[in-house]
Amino acid sequence: MHYFYVLDISQPQITLSTEESEHCIRVMRHREGDIVRVTDGRGHLADFSVIEANPKKCILEIHKLIEENLPLRHRLHLAIAPTKNIDRMEWLVEKAVEIGVHHISFLLCDHSERSRVNMERMNRLAISALKQSQTSWLPIMQVLSFDEWLDNTSNMTADRFMAWCDDDNNRQLATEPFLHQDILLLIGPEGDFSPEEVAKARQLGYVEVKLGNRRLRTETAGLYGCLTVAMREITSPIPSTQE
User: Fold this and answer.
1) Which of these, 35, 86, 88, lies nearest to 62 by C-alpha position?
2) SS3 breakdown of the chain: % helix, strand, coil, rounded to 5?
3) Residue of 220, 151, 231, 212 whose CA lies nearest to 184
4) What is the reported pLDDT for 54?
5) Which of 39, 31, 42 lies closest to 14 in space, CA to CA?
6) Of residues 14, 94, 90, the one with CA closest to residue 59
7) Is 76 in contact with 102 (CB distance < 8 Å)?
8) 160 pairs with which residues across the strands?
């Protein structure tokens, strides 16, 4: 069944956006009476029937609600410095949505080689990946400075990890215990975090970890983090201390 995205699916009738209407009617060739699946990106799903097959303003009517708002055992908050080649970050957003990520923050760090991110395009890519992978969770995405990230998350009850190129550190993210529902993972720019940034993160309780035994590209490191948390989602019980 084809998936479509709408911000609010709580009404008996909804109207797809112009882009989604075009995709539904002209690309997928749906007609009146067809059943399509719609998500709000917040874990909710419903089947709707097409009642007006307008390629600019497609109107749908509720057919059946689907209980898919499942609690996540672990919510990954990925904070990653955007690469100079933005195509790599776009690739990461697609794969992270397919695998499952709760939050993506693009960090502006001391050694960052890119200071701007087209968030409108990133959101379009995330929605496309959401529909293609037939999931119902769309990550919250934003651009923040390193200090803003630390300030915004300082009061969260979470497990905190920082991946950086420290040859003396042998702790692995894959073997670290996850004690809380929220996982904060910092991944630095191509020039790595500055000593000042590392010191600030340490003061807030970030544990320095490695992502395997190889030095990874920034976007590969982000994917590794998503996969590590996703595997815990499958294999570990819901922690009794989750908030």
Assistant:
1) 35
2) 30, 25, 45
3) 151
4) 96
5) 39
6) 14
7) yes
8) 184
pLDDT digit string (tens) for 59-95? 999 999 886 666 567 899 999 999 999 999 999 999 9
Paired residues of 35 in beta bridges = 49
Closest to 36 measured CA to CA, from 11, 57, 12, 64: 64
Residue with tokens 């490191």: 221
Q: Are 10 and 39 spatial neighbours (Cβ–Cβ below 8 Å)?
A: no
Q: What are phi and psi of 100, to 5 degrees?
A: 120, 115
CA 230 to chain centroid, in Å, comes to 12
Predicted confidence (pLDDT) at residue 241 exceeds the cutoff of 70: no
- Please check the confidence at residue 98 and state whether its pLDDT lies above 90: yes
Beta-bridge partner residues of 183? 76, 159
CB 59 within 8 Å of CB 89: no
* pLDDT (0 to 100) of residue 236: 58
| 3 state DSSP class of 182 | strand
Q: What is the band of 162 on the pLDDT scale with cuts at 50, 70, 90? A: very high
Tens digits of per-residue pLDDT, 10-58?
999 999 999 999 999 999 999 999 999 999 998 899 999 999 999 999 9
Residue 233 pLDDT: 72
Residue 8 CB neighbour total at 10 angstroms: 9
Residue 94 has phi, psi (to 5 degrees) of: -60, -50
Q: Which of 127, 130, 73 is nearest to 99 (CA)?
A: 130
Q: 3-class secondary structure for 106-146?
A: EEECCCCCCCCCCHHHHHHHHHHHHHHCCCCECCEEEEEEH
